[in-house]
Design a protein that fits this description.
- The protein has 4 helices and 8 strands; from the N terminus they run βααβββαβαβββ.
- The protein is an alpha+beta fold.
- Strands 1, 2, 3, 4, 5, 6, 7 and 8 form an 8-stranded mixed beta sheet that branches.
- The structure holds coenzyme A.
- Coenzyme A (COA) binds next to helix 1, strand 4, helix 3 and helix 4.
């Protein structure tokens, strides 16, 4: 399996993969695939990585700039992230996340934040604490990973294209 940056030929496949992966999820609202397109248009798609196996796209992750009200340095939001249903729980999501985080670290990023379940993102290295908020969302779902050993504090604001994805 290869993790590589998206190319123009992947764009439709990424949207379809994302929409199909989120469709059965209680928090899926049908906007996830389109949000990646919008981030690309907005210039907010900092990193878009695909997992390719046997010539097929089986996973994708997007990273975009995020703001944290009391944090310093460059923070990024991770998501949407999707792995094709028949290839989930095989470590592909973790490989996508870790490759993206390694590339962000190379760019000097302070860290990465996301909204998600600890059962999925805890094993990838993300944590949550009471210092990070996103509106009225349960703080357990507001997770981060620091790339410079400084934990963030404050209210998280994601790229405009992602605001409508909030659960
Ligand atoms: C979330 C998703 C990208 C994870 O990708 P993946 O390749 O299955 O993830 P990994 O195999 O690397 O697993 C990472 C951890 O998450 C856990 N995990 C994965 N799917 C899970 C699920 N549905 N429920 C609970 N835990 C889950 C794995 O068990 C693993 O933890 P472990 O190391 O303790 O076993 C994938 O399940 C997916 O596409 N889901 C549908 C779309 C979605 O919900 N995206 C995220 C929205 S927040």
């Amino acid at each position: 399996m290869l993790i590589r940056p998206e190319t123009d030929r992947d764009i439709n496949l990424i949207r379809a993969l994302t929409d199909v992966a989120f469709a059965p999820m209680p928090y899926g609202d049908g906007t996830e695939g389109a949000s990646i397109d919008q981030m690309r248009i907005d210039g907010d798609l900092t990193l878009s990585l695909v997992a390719e196996d046997g010539g097929e796209i089986i996973g994708h992750v997007a990273f975009s700039p995020a703001q944290i009200s009391e944090a310093t340095g460059d923070w990024y939001g991770m998501g949407p992230i999707s792995v094709r249903a028949d290839r989930q729980k095989q470590g592909i999501g973790t490989r996508l996340a870790h490759e993206g985080l390694a590339q962000l670290k190379t760019r000097g990023a302070a860290g990465c934040v996301l909204i998600g379940r600890p059962a999925v993102y805890g094993p990838m290295g993300f944590v949550s604490d009471s210092n990070l908020t996103h509106g009225k969302l349960d703080r357990v779902l507001v997770q981060y990973i620091t790339l410079n050993d400084v934990p963030p504090k404050g209210e998280v604001t994601f790229a405009p294209a992602l605001q409508q994805d909030d659960p």
